[in-house]
Amino acid sequence: MSDYGDYYKMVKRYVLSGILGTNAQKRNRHHRDTMIKNVVSHLYSKIKDEDFYLVELREPFQSELFQLAFKQSLGKNVESVYVEELGVTLTKEEMFQILVTDPMMGAIEVDWRDFFPYLRWVPNKSMELKIQHMEMRKRALVKNLIEEQRLHITRGEEISCYLDCLVSDGNTLTDEQLIALVWESIIETSDTTLITTEWAMYELAKNPSCQDRLYQDLRKVCGSKHITEEDLQHLPYLSAVFHETLRFHSPVPIIPPRHVHEATQLGGYDVPAGTDIIINLYACNMDKNDWEEPGDWKPDRFLSGEDEHAEMNKTMSFGAGKRKCAGSAQAMLISCMTVGRLVQEFHWKLKEGEEENTDTVQLTNHKLYPLQAYIRSRCA
Ligand code: HEM
């Protein structure tokens, strides 16, 4: 449940100064630039001549984002780690499974007792054991990662990262709180931005006229040089692609519940004090009264000429109010920079049959089948 107490306020300060605020984002700029460079190099390695080649974006992008998550949170990339408590050495893929995929799947685990509340007293041992096992592995891994880096930090080594900020003098977080905060920053970096970027590339590969328009804008603003974060403010169509993708494929379709402290009215309904409400963002974003042809992906609807803030608030994709997403700037920087660079470098075409592959999985609208597209170098 979203609260707004002292602990929350303290953590929000750490989050902003250690990882997501403007200064922290500036510190991490070189990590983001490296990430995009590596994704592009990976895709070039799949191309042999001026022809189209079939590629999957998810694998290299996911791996690079996960690396970025480690660098921002712990100050270094981790390729593998021996976890004493588990007695195993984990590869990067296994760490991703434990820190990102398993918790996401756990969040949508169905407890059959929810459908029969009068049978709540019946134990659901298999589910409880599964969740406990997942939680134990996640905790052991994060604890291990923290302890390794903490040694370097206490030796006085210069490691500028979120953990460094969390354990700096005067902070009073318990080990459990540290584990929770470091894990949250890793999963938040690794999941929703990947989903948004993959769906944006799917839509651009499916809609050649939108892709061409974006390419022309990029040529106009950047000429023959690579897009930079400074260019983003001059690329409204790129930003419109990002917002329309969030509206259409919302990676957080349901936001954490809100507790109603005072009786109020919402959308014409009386809501008594004490109610817990859940907002379905996907339904809000697809609302037929607000949008023209809401069932079509049309970036133009975000080109009203208003400022970026106003465009962003047209959807509730990042939530609203005090608990609004703290990582929206990072998500936008990474997603827009990646989409921009991928369109600058390559011509994208969907693989035959891929158009129909719009099924989703997990809590965050993950594309069930990774995007498969043909790419050709624009230099060819
Ligand atoms: C496109 C990507 C993303 C979307 C759509 C998204 C969406 C959301 C939403 C809907 C909320 C809940 C807001 C509310 O309750 O009103 C939220 C909260 C949050 N998000 Fe994001 N998010 C994204 C990326 C990120 C990233 C990359 C990070 C950090 C690395 C991040 C960090 C957070 C944090 C810390 C909160 C809690 C804020 C608070 O409670 O004060 N998000 N996000």
Automatic annotation (TrEMBL):
Coiled-coil stretches noted in the UniProt entry, renumbered to this chain: none
InterPro entries: Cyt_P450, Cyt_P450_CS, Cyt_P450_E_grp-I, Cyt_P450_sf, KO_chloroplastic
The protein's name in its UniProt record: Ent-kaurene oxidase
Pfam families to which the protein is assigned, alphabetical: p450 (PF00067)
Biological process annotations from GO: ent-kaurene oxidation to kaurenoic acid; gibberellin biosynthetic process
UniProt topology in membrane: Single-pass membrane protein
One term of GO molecular function: iron ion binding
